[in-house]
Design goal:
The protein is α/β, with parallel strands linked by helices. Helix content is 46%, strand content 16%. The chain binds coenzyme A. The site of coenzyme A has 16 residues, from β6.
Length: 260
């Protein structure tokens, strides 16, 4: 693995654990973090040793407390658009990554932090996690995909309420709204994410990727998700994983998948 300065990484048993590492700034996403996150995502795509990923924040207080507000000063319209586009590019790569990515939300997930968590495939929160899109307090709107992904995850009414009131909600409320998959005790957060990833990684890697791409198709303009599902189902039956999975079932043994 490459060494990063704003990220800490640990690779073990195919699971890459990424810590956003700016604890003194509550892990706010400055240009350096976004740049290194982009490099790390490229590494996730290309490194065969990485099978699944957990993204979390360093320290006990914050996942990510938003984009770095210090970098907003004096932006021109073009610079503002570039800043948003950069975040979109990185978060889109996370969303369509062929390998499963879980956000382990260990505290504040505000603004860009909530958006980062929402770009991941699954979100597990610790009991002290807090979520919100408070950009309107700054005269802004969410700019890293939040207006879209929050609406997709919790529906238009509640998404508009959260974005217009700038309310910060706790983990239990986030779970009730469907913003997070599960809430666990803080000390169990990473182990819970690892256990879930291990379960996912015991399935066909090819099929997991096709699930991600097929679900993504639902939200992509100009693409019919049902057609995509038919297409990808057809591809699945041509794979070794399909032969292995069905054969193993009939032979009453555990499958050994290769992702091919
Ligand atoms: N951008 C830049 N710096 C940030 C930040 C952000 N989004 N969020 C927190 N920080 C910094 C603070 O400026 C402070 O730095 P300092 O010690 O050099 O002054 C440090 O992180 C600790 O934050 P602090 O505000 O002292 O902690 P707190 O416990 O009192 O409050 C929050 C925590 C999350 C409620 C508060 O930091 C906050 O409101 N942050 C901004 C959230 C936000 O609006 N995010 C969306 C941005 S688009």
């Amino acid at each position: 693995m490459k060494q990063y300065t704003t990220l800490l990484t640990e690779l073990s048993n195919g699971i890459l654990l990424i810590y956003i590492n700016r604890e003194d700034k509550l892990n706010a996403l400055n240009g350096a973090v976004i740049g290194e996150l982009n490099e790390a995502i490229d590494e996730i795509y290309s490194n065969d040793e990485i099978k699944g990923v957990i993204i979390t924040g360093k320290g006990s207080k914050s996942f990510v407390a938003g984009a770095d507000i210090n970098e907003f000063k004096g932006l021109t319209e073009e610079e503002g658009k570039r800043l948003a586009q950069r975040g979109h590019d990185v978060f889109d790569k996370i969303e369509i990554c062929p390998k499963p990515i879980i956000a382990a939300v260990n505290g504040f997930a505000l603004g860009g932090g909530c958006e980062l968590a929402m770009a991941c495939h699954i979100r597990i929160a610790s009991e002290n996690a807090k979520f919100g899109q408070p950009e309107v307090k700054l005269g802004l709107i969410p700019g890293y995909g939040g207006t879209q992904r929050l609406t997709q995850l919790i529906g238009k009414g509640k998404a508009l309420e959260l974005m217009m009131t700038a309310d910060i909600i706790d983990a239990a409320c986030a779970e009730k709204l469907g913003l997070v998959n599960d809430v666990v005790q803080t000390v169990e957060l990473i182990d819970t994410c690892k256990a879930m990833l291990e379960k996912i990684l015991s399935m066909s890697p090819h099929a997991i990727n096709q699930v991600i791409q097929s679900v993504y198709a639902h939200f992509k303009d100009g693409i019919d998700g049902f057609d995509t599902e038919i297409e990808l189902f057809g591809k699945c039956v041509t794979t070794n994983d399909f032969v292995e999975g069905t054969t193993a079932f009939l032979e009453k043994r555990k499958p050994v998948f290769t992702g091919k």
